[in-house]
Description:
The structure holds two protein chains of two kinds. Chain A has helices at residues 3-19, 21-41, 49-60, 71-105, 118-130, 141-162, 167-192, 197-206, 214-233, 235-240, 245-250, 255-277, 283-295, 299-323, 332-354. By secondary structure, chain A is mainly α. By secondary structure, chain B is an alpha/beta fold. In chain B, helix 3 runs parallel beside helix 5 (141-154), helix 4 runs antiparallel to helix 5 and helix 5 (141-154) packs parallel to helix 6 (171-183). The longest helix of chain B is centred in the middle third of the chain and has 14 residues, at 141-154. The termini of chain B are far apart. Chain A: It comes from Streptomyces parvulus. Chain A: InterPro entries: ABC_BtuC-like, ABC_transptr_permease_BtuC.
Amino acid sequence: MTSASRAATASGIRAAARRAPLLWALAGVLALGASVAVAVTVGPADIGVADVWSVIVAHLGGDPAAADVTPIRDGIVWDLRLPRTLLAAVCGAGLAVCGAVLQSLLRNPLADPFVLGVSSGASTGAVLVVVLGVGGGALSVPGGAFLGAVGSFALVMLLSHSLGGTPDRVVLAGVAAMQLFSSLTSFVVMTAADAETTRGVLFWLLGSLGGAGWTDVGTGTAVLVLVLAVCLGHGRTLDAFAFGQDAASALGVHVARTRLVLLCATALLTAALVASAGAIGFVGLVLPHAVRALTGPGHARLLPLCALAGAVFLVWVDTLARTVLAPKEVPVGVVTSLIGVPAFVLVLHRTRRAR
Amino acid sequence: MTLNAERVSRTAGGRPILDGVELGLRPGVMTGLLGPNGSGKSTLLRLLAGVLTPTSGVVTLDGRPLDRLGRREVARRVAVVEQQADTLVEVSVRDVVRLGRIPHRRAWAPESAADEEAVADALARTGLTGQAGRLWHTLSGGERQRVQIARALAQQPRELLLDEPTNHLDIQHQLDVLALVAALPVTSVVALHDLNLAAMYCDHLVVLSAGRVVARGGPAEVLTADLVAEVYGVHAEITRTGPDERPHVRFLGTLRG
Lengths: 355, 257
């Protein structure tokens, strides 16, 4: 295909996506449903989509015993794989939305909760509560994660502001914060020094959906819905940031207030996700760029489709992570980084060309 | 009545940027804002747009202080074109012009017929109707400025503020942009470096030096050899040629030189 015809095809797809956003949203929802259903069947123990359906119907009907499967299989589906797959969907959706919002708000195509050190800060906050018992029981794990996320965000903003505030400085400050908080997390986990230590470090630094339970799914979904609603309510405001803060202000946007609200919202969502799945990197960086190429820059379309694409993406990445070296499990963050780093380089190249 | 700056001052880090500036716009008039770098032109424009607030003094719109009006309400009246706008987002010309509708739309409301009409009208008035699908990063500097003016027009402003809109443009596009602005039925303020362009297109000139207004009036009145020497430190010869006798400045060298 010549580059001209490729560009024509791309713009044709884009035009179609803009004309029929509802159709794409519907396709996304169907793809997500199918992905969850199929991903749950993947793995040892021969479980089919029909079994999954039967288990879900039985449990939602209030009578788990009615499922047409053995109790062991019922347990695998309902207690292990379903919450895990749903948490993957929630994390993927949340991280992609956070990435899209941060990229627009900070006018930085490389922004994402992981690159900016927010995820690492949340990890540190969470392990301080889990391992050292900071807060003396008054602070929950998500609460600690939120304070950690806000703390590292504040550090990155302060640092990048003092360095001049250009997009590359923000990323450099983020990298510094990420390293700092990752080391702090490792250090805190090591002080616990029991058999679980290494696993614990891997969980908080690289992310894992292995420990997912229904509480995680519930909390994650609630925070996701709340934050997504806040971000969608600010959709047009986010559009206004395309040409910078002054331009946004001249279009009637309260810049400081918007930044505060949206930075807190993304920190809250990141914290909720990190508290149950650790710091999964690069999902928030990669997905928004892919989706933006399809929907164009308008956030009213971009954000919901980012959520759907992120959800489908992480469901499959997690499935890959738990099956590729079975019975050993690869931390999901390793897989997202393997995919994410080349994409990171690609984005860097594109922004250089755009200058 | 329109935008008025009443004895506005602005300091940054203890240093005065603007010092007691009075500026009253007259409806439909294109005012040129002149002065060397650092004289406070950009700051004055940002105060007029309400993007910055004055340290003392007040900017009013139809007699009401800007800070009493909502940001959105101001943006529905006053539009700004920056010196050099750029974005890393892949946006089309139409996307950029649509941004101008933001102050007119509520958070969850879909695009209305009035929005579409305003965008189409802004594209038509800037001659961009056929280019609406082009991507921002493929446009030349002159085309980008034209798109920003279209975006400003989509705001349906009565006041238009432009901060050195001709910087970085070749001469054809400089004339093109200023002719476009001069023909618009709005009250406009244009910060400019080029004295001859200001003399050609503006109805009224205001000259800033070190944060104070040092001259104001019609181009013929304001642009004198003495003023150019005093404000810019440059020897100049002013001639009046052409049918409307607009002044023309010929530079002869710096005062020191």
